[in-house]
Amino acid sequence: MAAGMTALLSLLIALLAHFIGTDPLGMSLVSQHPNLSFKPIQLHTLSSQPRVRDEKNRLKNAQIPAVVEGAVGPESLAFDNDGRGPYTGVSDGRILRWDGPTLGWTQFALTSSNRSEVCNPKNPPAPNPAFEHICGRPLGLRFHRQTGELYIADAYFGLLVVGSEGGLAKTIVNEAEGLPLRFTNDLDFDEGGLIYFTDTSTVFQRRHFLFCVLSGDDTGRLIKFNPKSREITVLLRNLKFANGVAMSKDFSFLLVSETTNCRILRYWLKGPKAGSSEIFALLPGFPDNVRRNAEGDFWVALHCRRNVPTSLVLSYPWLRWVLFKLPLSMKQLYYMFIGGSPQAIAVRLNEDGKILEVLEDHVGSTVRLISEVEERNGQLWMGSVMVPNVALYTL
């Protein structure tokens, strides 16, 4: 009897393995990307990372002054030369300006001229990622301090610019080295007006960002653009999810987030190391945008903390293959990735990459899934690529 049960159990396991491996009903996430491959990811060990936490859970006391109607994802925040703002880009391709609690949000610019029904902010499908390539998806924003123009990293349309009066933005870069920009993410300027920006992947687009992370995709690039000569130069390549960009206070180096590897890289622009890169900081989570404050420190928004299950999955390509073969939805996989519960983590680094401060909302009771932290007048403005609001915390 026992032998028969063992044989039956073995048969069921074999049939299940065959079903998962062949996916005859096309139920797995791999069916969306039949050529998906899983590359090694070399993460630093959790034990090598100092366990830094905000025991006071301070971001729980933040405020939510600005809620976006009809869209989600105010990812990046910028203030113009007159101090107005913040400006932010949202999921239906609009760039909005916050004019205070009385006036609320004002539409400032668009990254796509296509304002069809699916891009209507009052149309429920508008925040659907499936329409981002139609409506546009503005991510990183920076104002040019000399011209007052707003430069935009749109995930689908490349590097764009719009005048100080707003309107329809125009594309200025949409390829580098013959490869189209598939996932333009963030940007910053040096003192001479050269633009440095990231292309997260040459394979995946933003709506497939989780595929990009979990596959170990290493096609991300850091790119330099000279607006005067129109010259485009790829400075770094083979990055795993190239993300946020921030210039140092003295313009001697540039930081770029490498999200999948949970680290920040430093690219030297001046001095004896010019043209080389190095690890600047190893982080306890997955970094998004980086923004410098007036003192020269850097605020890094972490999308979520690393946890043991996520670290285990990322360490073994075969385990990620099995996970993607299971009949899981993207939402289920995403919640597994972030540890089951949204949270908020902001880390302040000094110019040597040392962690000076950590602010958290441990369970996302007020702030969650932040993508950027902008320090201004003793306050932190925080955006999120996932939720429909901007948070504000007083230091």
Automatic annotation (TrEMBL):
Transmembrane segments: none annotated. InterPro entries: 6-blade_b-propeller_TolB-like, Strictosidine_synth_cons-reg. This is Strictosidine synthase conserved region domain-containing protein. Keywords: Glycoprotein, Signal, Vacuole. The keyword Glycoprotein applies. The keyword Glycoprotein applies. Gene3D superfamilies: TolB, C-terminal domain. Residues 1-22 form the signal peptide. GO terms for molecular function: hydrolase activity. It is found in: Vacuole. One of its GO terms (cellular component) is vacuole. Belongs to the strictosidine synthase family. Residues 185-272 form the Strictosidine synthase conserved region domain. Pfam families: SSL_N, Str_synth.
